[in-house]
Amino acid sequence: MVQDRPRVVRAPRSVWSRLWDLTEIRWAALATGLFAVGGLAQLLGAPAPVWWTLYLACYVTGGWEPALAGLRALRERTLDVDVLMIVAALAAAAIGQVFDGALLIVIFATSGALEAFVTRRTADSVRALLDLAPERATRLSCEDAEASAKDDRAEDAGAGEVVDTAELVVGDLVLVRPGERIGADGRVVGGVSEVDQASITGEPMPVLKQPGAEVFAGTLNGTGALRIRVGRAAADSVVARIVALVEQASATKARTQLFIEKVEQRYSVAVVVATVALVAIPLAFGAGFTPTLLRAMTFMIVASPCAVVLATMPPLLSTIANAGRHGLLVKSALVMERFGQTTLVAFDKTGTLTEGTPRVAEIEPIPRVGLSTDDVLALAAGAEQPSEHPIARAVVAAARDRNLSVPAAEGFSSTPGRGVTAVVAGRPVRVGSPALLAETTDPTGPTADVGDAVRRALGLAGQLENVGRTAVVVLVDNAPAAVLGIADRLRPDARDTVAALTALTGNSPVLLTGDNPRAAARLAAEVGITDIRAGLLPADKVDAVKAWQADGHRVLLVGDGVNDAPAMAAANLGVAMGRRGSDLALETADAIIVRDELGTLATVIGLSRRARRVVSANLAFAATVIVALVTWDIASTLPLPLGVAGHEGSTVVVGLNGLRLLRATAWRRAAPGTLD
Fold this sequence. Notes:
The protein is α+β, with helices and mostly antiparallel strands. Helix content is about 55%, strand content about 15%. Strands 10-22-21-20-11-18-19 form a 7-stranded mixed β-sheet, with helices on both faces. Strands 2-1-3-9-4-7 form a 6-stranded antiparallel β-sheet. It is elongated and about 115 Å long. It starts with 14 loop residues before the first helix and ends in a 6-residue tail after the last helix.
């Protein structure tokens, strides 16, 4: 279905070149460089005009964008931090403290550059999701459709017309050849194949698709050809709706910042009004201009929120760094703060609680003369070795784990939905779904009663499927020899993590998965989860998250795939698995578990709560110092050096207090089961 247009191959661009594309980053880097050179010149005793010039150049390069933003705010009759920072920096220069003003400019410009970079990366990742769906599709005409309907080799019958997927309309008939991506949501009307739809549903194994089955744009076709009747336009496909859901949820989350903006507005107005009053009122009563201006500028410095900001950031940044050292990357201080507020954790199944790799969990042999369990597994691995199917890789891996010699296969063939057939060690071997048992006829081997063996194999397959396994039968000499139970491997720390999160949040975690209910129930029982939501599409997961939020929960969702991204964006916190996570999941997530160690979740929640206590203590101390210095400046005469020393001294104290959370002992104390 996909015939990509020729593309110009360009050399991959480095991270630094992509960063340099952003205007905010270029100006922030230039301002930082000028500030560093100016500071060095001042330390080396260069003439004052030299380092003054460098600092003032830093004002221009780093401050012009905040200045423009401040002017826009003034035109809208509002005041914000942009205005306050520029006024404070200019005031510092007016009283000879040009170094302090330049430092304020550099810090503010750098924070703006980081925000611009994160915004660009998130937008790019959302747009990249649309690349899952191919740009081109093979649309069949009526004549082509009739020809392909008469010939099951649909990929050879009827050339069709290659068109842009955006041109497809509901009712069009399209052809999907083996190995191509499906370009539109619809239903199969002809052909049989297995489709890998993990990007949409999260299912770990390809799903059999035959006439009547629903398929999704962006999923990968297997070894068979399919004829699909388009059911939705490209703009309404599941993958397109995932993009819309991510953007919508992200916009909703951004509106929670309105409260912070209101506080910022009121604080800016209060400081500016107070500074103006400290100049105007004394002058009105005949006070001297120079001492009055000095008092007002001193007020501007000591009223600066630097100490309050630093009271909050070092503890949170320290916890971010500490968590990063232990394999959990947190993208912002706000995210770290929200970890401690979590009341409910929801897990995806495949690739999150499990490793996302099928394995042979059980081998149920059916007695055969001259064939041991290892013999059967070796023959099955030999037949599966040429296949690239995930189950085939699991069977071969199981044989190698037992140090078995895997013989070569001859006459290999694969049938979608059935399995593989080959001659191994001179014996015909078939490995596939239990449907193969219906094709068993006269034995050519030594089995005395094929009927009993078939009934036993069917019974074993049913038992395995009832406990959530995928049943795979092995036939040797056209008679059942074993039934394999295929399962996803549970992460070793999953059960302990679920128990720890239950104790921390007061609520048992929830399982959200697109997999079938039986497989979900079996895994949930293994890890101790009782609330199971199975068979969900991405939109269903978003609805579940919103329902919990409506009940007052602060939801943390852990996932790894594209299908999890909308729910991660809608949740209060989204956490992605680093090793298997899709690009969109990693970009949408607020945090990433780099080494896929689930146990770090409970520890980082505990560390976040400890950071919140440190922040509260720091804020109380910083606010007390600011109030004391401002009161001194207004009620009496606060010498400028003493004001700077008191203001910066309080900043150092709260900063050092927050940095205590960088220590390794802070991580150990935050771990579940320890006392703080």
